[in-house]
Amino acid sequence: MKTGPVIARIKATMAARFGTRVGGTAEFVGARDSQDTMAVPHAFVMTLPDEPTEPLTVSNITQALDDRFCVIVAVSNTVDPRGQNADDQLDDIRTEMLQALMNWEPGDPLFHSALIYDGFENIELTRARLWRRFNFRTITVV
């Protein structure tokens, strides 16, 4: 799955929240190294391993892939050492992200289904940042 259209969609629909602070996999690695000085909130779009299904036809020509990606978001945790404020920010961000991405078709609707939200995971909590991973998927027919 291409992450470029997802990054563009988040930048276009959530500009008030993130400004231009939406990146990809390579930018995420650098951000983790400099997280104490990184501007927040910040989002990073990364692909996850796909999950192929059994072929859809007897001739094995058509197959569906559960194409998966995540949006990792970092917010400030400096205001509240308990993380409550950061958690509230992430809940608001999730609501906005669901409005921006749910039911959106990231590619040709003939080959891609609309995006489906697939839950979240907390990645890391430090005194400076709270990191959360929001998971999404689409069915791609190949």
The number of helical elements comes to 4
Query: Order of strands across the widest beta sheet?
Result: 1-2-3-5-4
CATH superfamily: Phage tail protein-like
Overall tally of structural domains: 1
Multimer state: single chain
Number of strands: 5
The run of helices and strands is HHEHEEHEE
Terminal CA distance: 12 Å
pLDDT average, as an integer?
87
The low-confidence runs, each spanning 5 or more residues with pLDDT under 50, are none
Q: Tell me roughly what share of residues is in helical segments.
A: 25-40%
Share in β-strands? 25-35%
Tell me about the largest β-sheet: 5 strands, mixed
Task: Tell me the CATH architecture.
Answer: 2-Layer Sandwich
If you had to describe this structure to a student in words, what would you say it looks like?
This protein has a single domain (4-141), classed as STM4215-like, CATH 3.30.2000.10. 29% of the residues lie in helices and 35% in strands. It is built from 4 helices and 5 strands. It has helices spanning 4-13, 15-18, 25-33, 84-101, and strands spanning 22-23, 42-52, 64-76, 116-125, 129-141. A 5-stranded mixed sheet has the order 1-2-3-5-4. Strand 4 (116-125) and strand 5 form a beta hairpin. It is elongated. The N and C termini lie close together (12 Å). 26% of the residues are buried. The model has no long low-confidence stretch (mean pLDDT 87).
